[in-house]
Amino acid sequence: MTTTRFAPSPTGDLHLGGALVAVASHTLARASGGALRLRIEDLDPPRIVAGSADRIARDLDWLGVGVDGAIVRQSERRAHYEAAVAALERAGRVYPCDCSRADIARVASAPHEGEETVYPGICRDLNPSRQMKRAPALRLRTQGFITFDDLACGSQRHAVDALGDFVLKRGDGAFAYQLAAAVDDAEMNIDVVVRGRDLLSSTPRQLHLMHLLRYNKTPHYAHVPLVVDALGQRLSKRARGASVRALREAGVSADEVMAWLRGVLGMTQPEDAIAWPTSEAPVPAAWARLARSELT
Ligand code: GLU
Which of 9, 39, 203, 226 to mutate to test the pocket of ligand 1 (most atoms within 8 A of CB)? Predict the structure, then answer.
């Protein structure tokens, strides 16, 4: 019985890239009689779009992607993240960092490709009791290598310290995506994490955290290619993309959307096994035209 999860940030409507991840996660769970959990990653209040979590849940429902159990909201799990940071502090793996806000502003959200900054370790060896220039962020002292077999991308080996000492908690008190996702995937007993390939470099960080936190089970991962627009650019809730809702409003049926998503996953029948795609999936031209008002 495989437990999977879909973990959208409530920053906009469900787009086709998110729907692909949700359908793959649903298929894996259903094929084994397992469960698909829905987790709302609402840790960064300024980025939240009111009502979008409900809209995402309704769009999943319209597609026939049923979720199991109660919806998990990260904003309600802060005590778990606090406990994890405390455990890492006891293990001597955390240091305060008072580098400027611009360096750390993006860390409460998942860092999609092209948005990453590798922290150069400025505060790593400074006295943690020094006078801070501002409320410090807490960073993880990273070390070593992480290897894993990605179901879609194959064998992976990453030097975690080359990815930089990433933030666990921002100076403003917000817990970072990497910490929250690692704690939640472990504590929710997730067997397989499916997500976009732009998050591949987050996985060694999250596995590193799970090992340090001594969770005795870690998930398997499948990083799927991105769904792109006609120009080959990632559809994004941040940059407005072809949303499932826009397609529905333009008269596209749930069956048509599901048939296209299954096609990307190499499935002809709903009960087929997934053939993990290796290349980007461009939105059909007709849909791109329908959604043009959103894409401009
Ligand atoms: N909340 C992240 C996003 O919507 C996804 C994180 C994940 O699947 O680990 O981009």
Answer: 9
